[in-house]
Automatic annotation (TrEMBL):
Protein name as it appears in the record: Tetracycline regulation of excision, RteC
Recorded superkingdom: Bacteria
Biological classification of the source: Bacteria, Pseudomonadati, Bacteroidota, Chitinophagia, Chitinophagales
Pfam families to which the protein is assigned, alphabetical: RteC
Length: 277
């Protein structure tokens, strides 16, 4: 994902305003990344169901949504009317209305995505499951069966439409008739991968809950763990059970938090020693 983000940023930086040619370049970059991802998944097996769910729920939609986004962006810009500011405003408002209609039509999936729900994950994000009429309705017919569960397509469209809505709203606010700047792609922070053990993230989640660090202490543990899973693209199958295992540890309940504090203080000492030189 990092390589694709850098490539898209390079394409955009060629000009301050994205052109149709740049949109085509971006689509090609996304397609190549998707092809590489597909080849890897087809040739390699997931180690367990949790890893497979994590891929189709969180990782693939990151790539797929950008491909859908740039494709829709190209179509919107190529059809943008050349006329008065009012004509352009009406056109863009109609595009926004189409996006709102999409979210209304797919309200259940949108809420499942936004809330970070997990209770249907095994039905939605594992391959070779029996198909329901609903899954056929949203299935991407062009997808390779080994590279799709069917449902990651709708979640990719949701993410793409969120990006597209932001682009259109910025265009409306700018009041410009030219192509809108697309700075938010390159200004997006690059995704970070959690490389410590999952148990460390569980410790952190419980610590943040205990401290009341989110929503003035009103955020539930589930909301916190769901949020951390989305941010770090990691699947925590059963945080409550994992926490019980932490409590049974003979080495202590706060190994990660203790090491975090130790590393932080060591960093401060290094800064102070550097300043005193």
């Amino acid at each position: 994902m990092e390589e694709l983000t850098e490539e898209l940023a390079t394409i955009q930086q060629e000009k301050s305003v994205i052109s149709l040619g740049q949109a085509l370049q971006a689509m090609q970059a996304c397609r190549e990344s998707m092809n590489s991802l597909q080849e890897y998944v087809i040739q390699n097996n997931f180690s367990n169901q949790s890893e497979e769910i994590n891929f189709f729920k969180l990782i693939k939609p990151k790539f797929y949504s950008l491909l859908i986004f740039y494709h829709r962006l190209y179509n919107i810009e190529v059809s943008r009317p050349i006329g008065s500011e009012d004509d352009i405003k009406i056109y863009l408002q109609n595009q926004l209305n189409q996006i709102r209609h999409f979210f209304e039509e797919n309200k259940f999936w949108y809420q499942y995505h936004r809330a970070g729900e997990t209770y249907l994950d095994e039905k939605l994000f594992l391959r070779n499951r029996s198909q329901s009429p609903l899954s056929f309705r949203i299935y991407d017919i062009n997808a390779h069966p080994s590279f799709s569960t069917g449902f990651e397509y709708i979640f990719s469209r949701i993410i793409a439409n969120e990006l597209l809505a932001g682009y259109i709203q910025k265009s409306l606010l700018s009041g410009q008739n030219s192509k809108q700047e697309l700075n938010f792609i390159s200004s997006q922070p690059q995704p970070l991968t959690w490389t410590d053990p999952k148990s460390a993230l569980i410790e952190l989640a419980y610590a943040l809950k205990s401290k009341g660090s989110f929503n003035n202490g009103k955020a539930t543990l589930k909301e916190i763990t769901d949020y951390l899973q989305q941010v770090f693209e990691i699947q925590l199958t059963n945080p409550t059970r994992d926490f019980q295992e932490i409590l049974r540890r003979k080495t202590g309940y706060s190994n990660f938090l203790d090491s975090l504090r130790e590393s932080y203080l060591k960093y401060i000492d290094q800064l102070e020693n550097k300043d005193h030189r």
